[in-house]
Write the structure tokens for this entry.
Amino acid sequence: MKNQKVITWQAPTGETLNICTKCEKKLAGNWPKTSEGQEYCQVSKGLHKGHCGNCGK
Ligand SMILES: [Zn+2]
């Protein structure tokens, strides 16, 4: 699905992850981490349409 509202989060390593608004509520600030253990703690791109990397929708 490509019409999900997502926010792109970025880790200090530059890796990015899209997270939809539903997952954001579920995660409640408990952000996923990269394979190197870096948190996706910085917004790379604000709310836009895309594919959620957390729930896959
Ligand atoms: Zn999601």
Observations:
- Residues 20, 22-23, 52, 54-55, 57 surround zinc ion (CB under 6 Å).
- The chain is about 10% helix and 35% strand.
